[in-house]
Amino acid sequence: MKQLLPFEKIKRKVLVKKEFKTNEKLGCRPEERKTEEIINYGAVNINKPQGPTSHQVSDYVQKILHIKKAGHSGTLDPNVHGVLPIALGSATRIVQVLLTSGKEYVGIMHLHDDVSIEKLKDTIKKYFTGKIKQTPPLKSAVKRQPRFRKIYYFEIIEKDGQDVLFKVGCEAGTYIRKLIHDLGKNMKIGAHMQELRRTKAGPFNEENLFTLQDLVDAYYFYEKENNDKFLRKIIQPVENAISHLPKIWVFDTTVDTLCHGADLNIPGISKLNDKISKDDTVAIMTLKDELIALGTAKLNSEEMIKKEKGLAVKADKVFMKPRVYK
What we know:
Structural class: alpha+beta
CATH class of the domain at 103-201: Alpha Beta
Order of helices and strands: HEHEHEEHEHEEEHEEHHEEHEEEEHE
Helix content: 25-40%
């Protein structure tokens, strides 16, 4: 059975406050953007190899696509491989949302002495699932002080002697190498991480993963043979990077005001997802499913539906340029 991170479990309904038909002459549905646009306003899910740093992989992507900037969604150690979403061009600020989203890893730990699989599972269930206290390792980019992190699931897939294949779903900022070390210390036998692969980062997983070579080939076909089919398969609309966030859709007449940095008030809302809580990060969308801005909800879904006026969302980051809906 496929295991899910917390945000993946939330099935959200769309609540309609006031029906409205969008003007097809304004804006553009994400899947209909020109190839030049998605290259500078999209995201790629790169299968990071062992060796280069996350920053180096991001730099490779930038050079392959000949764009001015690219940003990765959370550092992977050079020896760790797997899912590394990279935002392109003017979409780079979207990585801040991905940095705080849940992650999943599959790896091999080596136990320094043999224990039964039952003892291993019992120790994990008792001490290393749910809310745990973790001190970042010596080589880390953050201050070394104890902090709490959530382990959503920690599953033992297979055990062969002192080598253990495992899967972990965790809160952003969890150090898996330290998690394995602490597990070995708790069992008084010692343990270290032998290999690690990231299999999920927010809404990105291994189902839409491509290598740097895939990207090189796709860009070659696009540039030299005027064939953008493969490139459009690799580069996703920026909206895919926020597919895990609750959404609020606004009227066409509200869009340009938001593009100039205004907050979203209730009269501008056409429809919204249910289960939005106060202080949630939400995506403000056009009725063509274009991302306008990210913001902080100031009311819950029920209040937004019932009330006729008031502040609904404090806008934090605006992505759409002004005058698209003018």
